[in-house]
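sry for the spam today, last one i promise. struct tokens for design, 452 residues
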């Protein structure tokens, strides 16, 4: 069997990474996808709230289909910067190109006094909290555990922040109903806490809950809750109405409170325990958030959840520009200082939108093939057509072609392949991708609910 003339590494197998790998493999390029987790689903599995079961299954099926391509190898449980050093990757492995679709798994720090002392005590960050929420129902779950408390505060303003508020309310209501001998679950509550309470003829007030409050530094009509265009005054007005309606509908169904134009400035504690959060009023001037002097107030709470966005985790050896990867100014998502390393998806866009991540993964991978690898689908056939020519024929043509496309020699391909297989063996990957997924897919909440 002939080897492809390029070998590309993709780190991260979720939406952007799987799309990039699929595009590469479709042009005959041998590709290996490394993922830090056992399965390559990223925030589809660990960040998208588990009540989105149909969307999760749809997106994961799409990832499975792409990564099942015969020219793609999958290597799980391999984190760049930990299991494979970045310097080793760029200096020793010999890949034609490296694509970083590592996502944004680190929460943007809540930069206020007291935050570091209260982290995972009175202050929870969205990413680890989401992981717990999505997996704690699994038999034998051994991850970090979080306690959801009444009168919690969520700091943020996007759809993910609303999901945090919904999650808190679902957990609180589920537990209160259980105290009354009423069994429910997250999938039922997702249809609306109001509907579940109506079904059992119980008012929200009867539960004795204060609920949670979402604080946003801008106005409700500024919340990024709609993808509608805002290029004209008419479009902006329409989008703002949609944003307000989305928020109001969520509040009506899930009973959380909302306060606009408030920014956090400090956490209050007593004897090491969180007792409140101090916020400052704001106004919006020329689309800028302006703090109002002498407007501070303290909201009593024992739990604050920060939902103010995610950033890429730093990778030792990889140049950073503040909180993000340092990208070359040439506009092709090339990592600054590295001619064959590129970043794509949420690690660059900073947004967890599925459609945007897929599109970015496709655009960057096509750009890498067209502009850097100079490789088309026809090139794959051409290499081996020339190589299979009779001895003494086409040698000049072959050498000229290989120089122009920067392809790897067979020995280089074999060396990379040996390294990949060794890592697969090291992590216990010894089956087909489909079998690996089947063996390691977590127990789904819907399966547990149906069995009861």
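last one done:
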């Amino acid at each position: 069997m002939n080897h492809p003339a390029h070998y590309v590494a993709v780190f991260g197998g979720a939406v952007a990474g799987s799309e990039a790998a699929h595009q590469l493999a479709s042009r005959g390029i041998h590709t290996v996808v490394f993922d830090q987790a056992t399965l390559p689903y990223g925030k589809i599995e660990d960040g998208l709230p588990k009540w989105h079961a149909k969307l999760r299954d749809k997106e994961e099926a799409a990832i499975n289909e792409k990564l099942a391509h015969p020219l793609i190898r999958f290597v799980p449980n391999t984190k760049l910067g930990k299991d494979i050093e970045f310097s080793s990757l760029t200096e020793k492995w010999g890949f034609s190109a490296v694509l970083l679709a590592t996502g944004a798994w680190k929460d943007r720090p809540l930069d206020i006094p007291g935050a570091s002392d209260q982290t995972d005590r009175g202050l929870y960050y969205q990413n680890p909290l989401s992981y717990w929420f999505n997996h704690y129902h699994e038999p034998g779950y051994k991850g970090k555990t979080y306690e959801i408390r009444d009168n919690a505060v969520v700091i943020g303003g996007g759809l993910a922040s609303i999901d945090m508020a919904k999650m808190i309310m679902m957990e609180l209501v589920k537990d209160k109903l259980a105290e009354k001998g009423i069994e429910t679950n997250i999938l039922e509550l997702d249809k609306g806490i109001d509907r579940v309470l109506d079904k059992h003829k119980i008012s929200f007030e009867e539960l004795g809950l204060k609920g949670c409050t979402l604080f946003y530094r801008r106005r409700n009509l500024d919340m990024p809750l709609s993808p509608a265009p805002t290029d004209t005054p008419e479009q902006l007005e329409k989008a703002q109405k949609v944003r307000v309606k989305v928020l109001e509908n969520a509040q009506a169904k899930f009973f959380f409170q909302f306060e606009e134009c408030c920014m956090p400035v400090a956490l209050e504690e007593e004897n090491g325990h969180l007792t409140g959060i101090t916020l400052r009023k704001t106004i919006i001037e020329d689309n800028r958030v302006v703090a109002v002097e002498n407007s501070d107030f303290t909201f009593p709470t024992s739990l604050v959840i920060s939902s103010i966005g995610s950033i890429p985790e730093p990778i030792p050896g990889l140049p950073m520009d503040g909180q993000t990867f340092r990208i070359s100014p040439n506009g092709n998502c090339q990592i600054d200082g590295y001619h064959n390393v590129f970043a794509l998806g949420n690690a660059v866009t900073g947004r967890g939108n599925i459609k945007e991540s897929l599109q970015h993964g496709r655009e960057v991978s096509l750009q890498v093939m067209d502009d850097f690898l100079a490789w088309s689908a026809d090139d794959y056939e051409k290499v081996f057509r020339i190589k299979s020519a009779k001895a003494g024929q086409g040698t000049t043509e072959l050498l000229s072609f290989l120089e122009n496309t920067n392809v790897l020699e067979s020995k280089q391909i074999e060396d990379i392949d040996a390294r990949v297989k060794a890592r697969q063996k090291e992590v216990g990957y010894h089956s087909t991708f489909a079998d690996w997924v089947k063996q390691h897919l977590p127990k789904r909440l819907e399966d547990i609910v149906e069995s009861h």
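The radius of gyration is 25 Å. ok im logging off now
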